[in-house]
């Protein structure tokens, strides 16, 4: 795909009709194929341990790398989308995902799986998913909220179907042949990408927002050139490289927002800490059930129960949180959902009976629906939309770090103690502490700003004032999307 086609994808006018609904269907399938895929890895956990004689910690690195790369590859995906366009990046992701799983079927050691299934498949899933979400922003304006809500149901469908398919194929033909088949299934991301054709421009010229903008630092460079400095002068070249490097970091990693915006700072730290425990049940629930005598088919069904309930609860949670009553208060709903996730883990500690685990999955799924529906809505509340893309870049990279190290560290603890209960103790600790930190910190921040505003009103008697740390009013839905937007999900 040429640069012109990429620009066409990024600057065209969305249509909200016709082919846009085919693109939405492709986005649903993409989210099921990519975000839903890591949930089935727990089905293979025990077989991989026996095959490679690996510990819990060593085996858990494989899904951890996959999920961390899927979440943390957003900035790289954004650069590729800007350069080559959405369709190319989705198809590239499908090719990488399929190649990674096909290669995994020939692995001779667990460390080789880190590279093939972990890095290559994770990166491919990241490209396909995030570029697929980005293109929705250009195909939909009036129905954008509905389109994103419908697309997110693909994750729940993936959570429901992948574990059942994995257990069936594992029983019939073993994990190597299953991974080979998975490679072929993930290649369907290329088909979804082919559907996402670039939108035709509404007029013969680019919109004003698509015109090249003068880059910071260019005036200083021009000044040096006007003073007689050669464009190839070493000092000038070094200065230009530093400036461009800073511009890239500023665009995709919003360190300035992190330092200046207390709301964004608290939320990013809280979610990053939360991710240390959030993924643990997904990785260890099936091995825990099998370890306690639950039949393998029933154990795989547990993850499917979580996904099935998500199909119905997540859209309802999104609609409920979008009510104006919750404007500016969504962070408290999010903290409550995280707290419920943490408390639900104690059910597994009480008993490992299948009926009790089903109850656990129902409660966990309801809480997870709230977390998944609110994660990025809260981020939009605390960050202005014109900086949302860069704020999201730093946000996803930091959470990917804890997603990477959380399961292996817990697996190491299980190896030492031979007690799977520590999986749920750890998960509860991180989730509950993160929920309390975010809820109490935002409450204190809100009180602080109210006092500041009251003091300002007393001194200056302004007619109107608003909350300065966080933006509590969402932007209008018909606002054009950022030039490059990458979104992940939990």
Automatic annotation (TrEMBL):
Compositionally biased residues, Polar residues: 463-481
Protein encoded by which gene: Slc16a5
Domain Major facilitator superfamily (MFS) profile per the UniProt entry, residue ranges: 20-451
Listed transmembrane segments: 21-45, 61-81, 88-106, 112-139, 146-165, 177-196, 266-287, 299-319, 331-351, 357-379, 391-410, 422-445
Annotated GO CC locations: basolateral plasma membrane
Subcellular location: Membrane
Main subcellular localisation: membrane
GO molecular function: monocarboxylic acid transmembrane transporter activity
Region (Disordered): 206-235, 462-490
Source superkingdom: Eukaryota
Name of one Pfam family that matches: MFS_1
PROSITE patterns membership: MFS
Keywords for the protein's UniProt record, in alphabetical order: Membrane, Transmembrane, Transmembrane helix
Chain intervals with Basic and acidic residues compositional bias: 212-222
InterPro entries: MFS, MFS_dom, MFS_trans_sf, Proton-linked_MCT
Membrane topology: Multi-pass membrane protein
Full protein name: MOT6 protein
